[in-house]
Amino acid sequence: MRKTIILLLLLGLPLSIVAQVTIYEKPDPTETLEGTWTLDLRPTPDAEGYYQPFVIERIEGNTFSGTFYGSEIKNAILNKNWPKIYFAFSTSDATSEYYHSGYMMEDQLHGMTYCPNREFAAPWTGSKE
Fold first, then answer.
1. 107 within domain boundaries
2. Owning domain of residue 81
3. What is the pLDDT of residue 108?
4. 38 in Cβ contact with 32 (< 8 Å)
5. Cβ pair 64, 33 in contact under 8 A
């Protein structure tokens, strides 16, 4: 979250000095990231939407738990040191390991999934339910 503050400094001079200061506040991921998201995993930009749930059940420190695409989230990491919240985690099915990373911007998720075994990388977007 960004706040802009306009400061008017009166220095006893004929003209005042006006300064604009931007202050970044670290978002609280517990309030903004926890919950159920619907991710659009369409394979190409012109394909119909292909939606799957991404559930962040609990955030604790710099990690979280939940499910994605019906699989348990593993190795989850949060980076809360930037104005945006960044995250990464992995999931798996019977044959492959999937690696996911993304960030939250303006109440939307933007991310990428990579699966070396299936030789694909795919971007995705999501919104909170």
1. yes
2. 28-128
3. 96
4. no
5. yes
